[in-house]
Design a protein that fits this description.
By secondary structure, the chain is α/β, with parallel strands linked by helices. 30% of the residues lie in helices and 19% in strands. The strands form 3 sheets. Strands 1-2-3-4-5-7-9 form a 7-stranded mixed β-sheet, sandwiched between helices. The chain has a 4-stranded mixed β-sheet with strand order 10-11-12-13. The protein has a two-stranded parallel ribbon with strand order 6-8. The longest helix has 18 residues.
Length: 345
């Protein structure tokens, strides 16, 4: 496995810079900046390792937080958890999305059961908000234990190329199994974009924030609110039929067909590394958001392998819960008959 791209100092943003990159210029307002942990003694720091706040993205309100891996490894304590739960409560009241920049070593050992209880409260609020407001996690560093459980419960996960996410780290694997693995081999973006956990990969923190902004432009702030409408754009001046070969045994890239039909030829593809015999994403037609589900003839001749129905179901659910129209292109000839090869798709 190739080594991940190592971010330079310029590419690696601080927690505050991540929130500022997410929000419209000048709209970020922080909350609970002076809270501290009563259990950390002289090591306690204002904010307890997380920045929480609200702002606007494309003129619409969002609530957000960013964990600070520079303090206690981003570990979660009781006050830290209180700030994240507060963000979720405010998002529910205002019917607004939640965006979290996650980089945490898990529960803080110094706080014991109180830290574990904090994760329990976060998990409970995340599940309660599921299907009501968009919840997006940006994994921008090492996330272990509860720091991996928490993003996995949200609707969308973005990972930077140097991020990793796992329940127990390489040290535990070495002691328990005698295997030497790196953090990237255990839970890097290449692992999670293939198993469907990670929906998007961005090279840098700033590009990850921009990707979240683009994703939010396709989604309603709440399931009961209308989907955003953008100014209509012309599709590229190409006939979609020219990309489809006349011979049924020849393959083609269905993304070329999609680009000829949607506004500006632009589609935001979701989970492109998972079940690659399927293409899913968001696009616009006459300014209206549509969810896209299409078989991909380039991979396995568009035949169905076991991950494909799971990806199709997940994409259909995402489109329907966000009140988007769903457009399907179906060209698959059959189900793949080779069991030994199914996981490779």
């Amino acid at each position: 496995m190739e080594n991940p791209q190592v971010l330079s100092v310029e590419d690696r943003l601080s927690p505050l810079e991540r929130l500022e990159a997410l929000c419209d210029t000048g709209t970020l307002e922080l909350i609970r900046t002076q809270v501290t942990s009563s259990r950390m003694g002289d090591k306690a720091r204002a904010g307890d390792g997380v920045l929480a706040g609200s702002g606007l993205v494309g003129g619409r309100p969002v609530f957000c937080y960013a964990q600070d891996a520079g303090y206690a490894g981003g570990s979660l304590g009781e006050s830290h958890a209180d700030s994240i739960v507060r963000v979720m409560d405010l998002a529910e009241r205002s019917r607004s999305p939640v965006v979290g920049f996650v980089g945490s070593g898990g529960a803080r050992m110094q706080e014991g059961v109180a830290a574990l209880g904090g994760y329990g409260r976060i998990f409970r609020r995340t599940v309660a908000l599921s299907g009501r407001v968009p919840q997006i996690s940006v994994v921008s560093g090492l996330s272990a234990g509860g720091g991996a459980y928490s993003p996995a419960l949200t609707d969308w996960i973005v990972m930077t190329r140097d991020a990793s996410m796992f329940l127990t780290g390489p040290g535990v694997v070495r002691e328990a199994l005698g295997e030497d693995v790196t953090a990237q081999q255990l839970g890097g973006h290449r692992v999670h974009e293939r198993n469907g956990v990670c929906h998007f990969v961005a090279p840098t923190d700033r590009q990850a924030a921009g990707l979240v902004r683009e994703l939010l432009s396709y989604l309603p702030s709440h399931r009961d609110l209308p989907v955003p409408v953008a100014p209509a754009m012309d599709a590229p001046d190409r006939d979609p039929a020219e990309f489809v070969p006349s011979l049924a045994r020849q393959v083609y890239d269905v993304r070329d067909v999609i680009s000829a039909l949607v506004d500006g030829g632009r589609m935001l593809e979701v989970a492109p590394g998972w079940a690659r015999n399927l293409v899913t994403g968001f696009a616009r037609i006459d300014g209206q958001t549509v969810g896209v589900i299409a078989n991909q003839p380039v991979t396995w001749a568009a035949s169905w392998t076991w991950p494909a129905p799971r990806r199709a179901r997940a994409s259909s659910r995402s489109a329907t819960t966000s009140a988007s129209r769903c457009s399907c292109w179906s060209t698959h000839p059959a189900t793949c008959p080779a069991p030994a090869r199914r996981p490779r798709a």
